[in-house]
Amino acid sequence: MSIMEKLVHILEQFNIKADALPHGNGHINSTFLVDCTPRVILQRINTNVFRRPEEVMENIMAVTSYLREEIEKSGGDPKKETLTFLRTKEGLPYYKDADGDYYRAYYFVEDTISLEQAQTPADFAEAAHGFGRFQRMLANFPADRLYETIEKFHDTANRFAQLEDAIAKDAAGRAASVAEEIAFARAYAKYATAITDAIAEGTVPLRVTHNDTKLNNVLLDAKTRKGICVIDLDTVMPGSMLYDYGDALRFGASTGAEDETDLGKIHFDLEKFEAFTAAFLEELGDSVTPKERELMPLSALIITLEIGIRFLADHLNGDVYFSIHRENHNLDRCRTQFKLVSEIEQYLPKMAEIVARY
Ligand code: ADP
Ligand code: GN1
Ligand code: MG
Asked: 260 with 345, same domain?
């Protein structure tokens, strides 16, 4: 069966008769836009990354139905402001096919845009409103109902351990060629535990967080450019607001693409940093603790470093986790992150001054 024939069969399980084409730039799942009315997104869940897809879907259904109620209460439109999943003929929110692959279908949110780079500080501030509001709306969600879909996802020290493991195994025979990147990572290992230590000592609270706040995971209204719908909900789990804040900055405050090969184009944009910070703090309001505030600048460094070492580890492992589209793609991604890390380190005092203004 060709992939297209397979997709037609899968769509039939959701009572849809239409064609589907690849869509978007996510690194994890396989995403297709289905040409039916209203339009639908079909996704194959990456089960190499998400080992227990039923648990992922249970989380997502619980979170989206909770959000739907919150959005209705505030007079919003749940069809635009959160994801709505379709059920199969059997009444399930996913379909497991004969090969053991898991598929899910949900409505495409029309009249929105998903950006790969923040064109203006204003767009980036709207992303902050979207992600910040998402966290605020989930503030009273019963966190103990959520499965941990990926263990120790933002435990940076654990990511360092995984990197050391990848270096030791050297599965793809690439360790010698990336000695410089390995040395860079090791020189920054001292930063790894600042957030997790603060969580352990209780000065940074656990909240229900998104944990993957890349700019293309929030949809902006195409006309008003307001941040309206947070998508890619696979990693919604208990976490720190610093994870969402830091991760959004590492991607959106960069002046270049995550995989830019000309590192001269990669800088950390303080104007975008300020725009994001102001909007995010506006959404979270008084709930932000003094320690969270203190760690905000450093969180941008830590999460950028963390994703950088994850790209490096995947390069060493032979590109088994993130989708790649060219040779050394994960290495290129690692290098942009490390360039940002060294700039952020220089900017930490300035960033602290900016945070203090809001
Ligand atoms: P991945 O986990 O691989 O990153 P995503 O769920 O983020 O997959 O989907 C990939 C891309 O598809 C998103 O970045 C976005 O551009 C687009 N997309 C996904 N869902 C929707 C939707 N409901 N409406 C509009 N665009 C969507
Ligand atoms: C992945 O799924 P996507 O492309 O939005 C990854 C994130 C990384 C990001 C780097 C589940 O996000 O953690 O920060 O790539 N998601 C998962 O671009 O590992
Ligand atoms: Mg995504």
From this structure: yes
